[in-house]
Every structure is written in structure tokens, then in C-alpha cells.
Prior knowledge:
This protein is 35% helix and 14% strand. It has helices at 6-10, 42-46, 72-82, 94-109, 139-149, 154-157, 160-179, 205-209, 235-243, and strands at residues 24-29, 50-54, 87-92, 116-120, 192-197, 219-224.
Amino acid sequence: MTHHDTTSLVRWFSDPSPRPRARRQLFCLPYAGAGASAFQGWAAAAGPELEVLPVVLPGRESRYAEPFDLDIAELASAIAARADRPYTIYGHSMGGRVGFEVVRELRRRGERQPLRLCVGGSRPPDLLEPLAELSWVGDEELLGRLAELGGLPAEILAEPELCELILPVLRADFTWLDTYEYEPGPPIEVPIVAFAGAEDNSVTPDDMRGWARHTTAGFDLSVEPGGHFFLHERRERILREALA
């Protein structure tokens, strides 16, 4: 077990309703530009059997003062230290890729691995991520493309100050995606459950089927109504999977 001082561990997780007696934990990894607030309301919707732990990545929300630096090894250490029961990881879009690398890192270290890795609207790691090109387009185009996907509420686009706050986070995350290189290795021994939005033009259900190559423990694809950000409407379905 990796030993962490509790302060450094606490900063990694938003813990709106601690449930030390819940039988399962769910770690949630956000899409590019988002923070733990992408999973607002999930803990309340989950019920007593599941402790929902949205991950707070550096440079946003309560970690606003920290540099944007997504370190998979550090994140894996934090999850390993916080996972004290059987757990599942759900990652959406960029979060799916991050979750996959976390599972590989946990395996390398011989730590407890999740019961399953759930990925939503996320291309398999061995495929090129077209959204990565957003790391080098101009601000207007970046915000416009995300608005088209449904990832930016109109009220944010209408507020220049909010746009200025969110742009550095978006740039940092798309830069992570742009510099990400999949290192081929053996498939993980954790079942993968993939969720695809039926109307998602950026990551199609066919793209999502490619995750099957990355596990030896079973693969399941669930096509949900909605576009790229279907997770908000389909959270009950995803929460059920975390308790399955």
C-alpha cells in the first residue's frame, strides 16, 4: 500500500457524501476541461450502497492554484490509497483514456485493481484522438467546436470571464491528449464496459467497440440515447453498472 499524508490524498477527491459503509466505491474521471463538478449530483443519486468519488485534477476547482500537470502515477497512487473496498472506475471522454492508464499503472505496481473499467464517449487508446487537435486551434474555434459537441453550456459562452477561466484547463487537457502516446502492452485483466452516445458524431459506437481489444476479462458495449455528453442524462444507468 502506498502511504500518503492525508492532506495530499484529500485534495484528489471531491467527497460530497462520504459513505464509509457502502459496499462499493466509484471513482469518476472527468472529460477535458471539466472537474469533479462534471459529476455533481451523482453521489446523491447513488444511494447507500455506493460511495461516489469524483476526481479533482490539478489546476482546477479546489486545486486551482496548482500547475496543470496530469501525472498518471500520482493519480494511481491516490486511487490505490483511497480504494478501501471493491471499486469501479468511470472515465468520460479524456477520462476514459486516463482511467485505462491508471489501471495499467496499478497492475504494474501489483495494487488492487478495479472490478471493472467503465469508459464513456472515449476512443480506445490505440486510435488517434481527433479532439486532440483542439490543443492548437484558436480560442474561438476551440469553444465553438466544444459547443457543437454539447460540452459547453450557452451561459458559459455568453460570459467572456467564464471563458477565460475555462480556456487554460481546456488547453492543458487537450495538450495531454495531443501528447498522449499509447505504449502497446498486454491487455488489462479487468472487464471493460463501454458506453457510447447513439448520436455522438465524435466517438461513434463503432469506435467504442475497439476497447474490446484491450481486455482479456470481458467486454460489453451499451449504446445510450444522446450525444457526446450523454453521461448527464444517463447517470442512473452508469451508477447501476458500478454496483453490478
